[in-house]
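From the methods appendix. Each design record in this collection lists the tokenized structure first, followed by the designed amino acid sequence. Records were kept in a plain field format so they could be parsed without special tools. The example shown here is representative of the layout used throughout.

RECORD:
FOLD TOKENS (554 positions):
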């Protein structure tokens, strides 16, 4: 399965609801704007030096982040085009910090920053006017919040309260513009052709083929002197299919193909073959028996293991300051108190390195050069010999983690928070992949079980709850035969279960996710000693009364 790159995440997730009709031939090009950059620099300088309200604090930090975008979308279903359009936008967000790094107007529940649109035209005065309005509104809100925050803290014991911000290195880097040129008429036909393929598969009730292409120039300027301009491009073909089993259970799967330029995409013929394979697998799954409950060893193939680590490990190793007044539930998500303690088997090593675009020719969606605070990405060692040594961080410190690691990012110019970029998981005592199944069976036999469970793929999950398995197999202890089953979901999985990983493979695979922001996990297949799954208790919808129209016989 192919996945999407970090360079087009904004395009995939935040495509506008209303689009203009697109031309037959598309040239998605966003020219570099020296006027925009100069307006940002000049307005940051003016705001930082002159912005003041009566006798109230002046800003100590001002930042503008602008994304200048051009995008195209096409969507089709069962051979019919249902959406086609282009969009051009220039969005900005302004962040103003009032007070000082020790105590400012942030981390009190409100997402930082005030956003708005900028003129498309390179009119210096018009751009500065739009930035001025954003800055004025953000500063007034900041002063009000800081006043309330100081009042709140006056009656609290805060000896161990961390500072609100930390210094970072100054960066100046200006890169070329982003551009994609292609024949939209040809790609409209391709999308229609791909979507029509589902007509061959009688069991598929719903399907969709989406095509996205875009170019974006991103600008970041702050009052410390950082100036960054970078151009990115991306193409995504997203394919999804859904059907129902005889008992009404809905089952679905998806494919994604991604590239930065068109010569990197899979061929249309290859994608058509993949659609056939997806439909065949879903049809077989719909005929598989359900499994009411399972408690025992579980073997996750490498892509599925990445999803599991995304639920159990990723949220906890991101150092995010606790919002003022937040309850104890906030602390439960963080592994900060586990720094210095073992969280994985002693043979495991974990690090994050977002500086590489690919892993074994697979695009990593979490790769980036600078985070959303303008800090360069770098490699960070997280787990050594199974012991948590460090956490990922932005410029907002926590009680134990001070200093950015270049991992603060947000969604669509949202508030930057520490997130996983590209997290690599290794087992120094890894065994060949083909030996994991034997290990699974021996572990199940020791527990007196007649079968174990292997999970080939699963959906994205949530904190301490991996996503539902898509393809899961009963593996019988007596002869190793496998039987496809459906309808399972995980109960809450404690983080400590990672310490009970029995074995891991010597081959790694990529698992990409968009939530909460683009991230990649490169992990081995892993065998957990014991997990619990069960069939969800919910009512199922009845199957459609009539067959789909494309199967109708006159």
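DESIGN:
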């Amino acid at each position: 399965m192919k996945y999407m790159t970090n360079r087009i995440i904004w395009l995939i997730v935040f495509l506008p609801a209303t689009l203009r009709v697109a031309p037959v031939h598309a040239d998605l090009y966003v020219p570099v704007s020296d006027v925009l950059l100069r307006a940002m620099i000049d307005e940051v300088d003016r705001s930082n030096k002159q912005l003041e309200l009566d006798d109230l604090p002046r800003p100590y930090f001002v930042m503008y982040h602008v994304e200048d975008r051009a995008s195209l979308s096409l969507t089709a279903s069962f051979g019919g085009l249902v959406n086609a359009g282009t969009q051009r936008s220039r969005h900005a967000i302004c962040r103003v910090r009032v007070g000082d790094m020790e105590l400012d107007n942030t981390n009190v529940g409100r997402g930082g920053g005030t956003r708005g649109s900028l003129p498309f035209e390179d009119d210096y005065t018009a751009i500065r006017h739009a930035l001025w309005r954003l800055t004025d509104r953000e500063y007034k809100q900041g002063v009000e919040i800081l006043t309330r925050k100081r009042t709140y803290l006056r009656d609290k014991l805060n000896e161990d309260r961390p500072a609100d911000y930390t210094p970072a290195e100054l960066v100046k880097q200006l890169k070329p513009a982003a551009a994609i040129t292609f024949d939209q008429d040809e790609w409209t036909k391709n999308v229609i052709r791909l979507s029509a393929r589902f007509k061959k598969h009688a069991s598929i009730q719903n399907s969709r083929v989406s095509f996205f292409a875009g170019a974006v120039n991103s600008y970041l300027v702050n009052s410390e002197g950082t100036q960054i301009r970078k151009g990115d491009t991306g193409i995504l073909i997203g394919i999804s299919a859904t059907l129902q089993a005889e008992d009404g259970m809905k089952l679905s799967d998806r494919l994604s193909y991604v590239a930065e330029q068109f010569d990197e995409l899979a061929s249309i013929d290859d994608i058509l073959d993949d659609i056939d394979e997806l439909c065949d697998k879903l049809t077989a799954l719909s005929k598989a028996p359900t499994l009411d409950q399972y408690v025992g060893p579980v073997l996750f193939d490498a892509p599925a293991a990445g999803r599991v680590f995304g639920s159990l490990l990723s949220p906890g190793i991101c150092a995010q300051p606790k919002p003022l007044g937040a309850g104890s539930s906030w602390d439960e998500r963080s592994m900060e108190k586990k720094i210095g303690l073992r969280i994985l088997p002693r043979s495991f090593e974990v690090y994050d390195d977002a500086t590489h675009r690919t892993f074994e020719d697979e695009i990593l969606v979490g790769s980036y050069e600078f985070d959303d605070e303008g800090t360069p990405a770098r490699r960070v060692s997280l787990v050594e010999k199974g012991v948590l040594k460090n956490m990922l961080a932005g410029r907002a410190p926590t009680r134990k983690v001070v200093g950015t690691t270049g991992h603060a990012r947000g969604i669509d110019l949202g508030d930057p928070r520490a997130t996983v970029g590209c997290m690599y998981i290794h087992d120094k005592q890894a065994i060949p992949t083909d030996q994991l199944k034997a290990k699974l069976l021996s572990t199940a036999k020791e527990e007196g079980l007649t079968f174990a469970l292997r999970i080939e793929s699963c959906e994205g999950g949530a904190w301490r709850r991996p996503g539902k398995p898509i393809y899961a197999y009963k593996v019988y202890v007596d002869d190793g035969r496998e039987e496809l089953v459906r309808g399972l979901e995980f109960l809450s999985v404690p983080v400590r279960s990672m310490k009970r990983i029995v074995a891991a493979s010597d081959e790694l695979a990529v698992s990409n996710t968009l939530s909460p922001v683009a991230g990649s996990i490169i992990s081995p297949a892993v065998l957990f000693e014991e997990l619990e799954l069960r069939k969800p208790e919910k009512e199922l919808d009845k199957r459609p009364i009539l067959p789909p129209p494309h199967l109708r016989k006159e």
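APPENDIX NOTE: The two ends are 38 Å apart (CA to CA).
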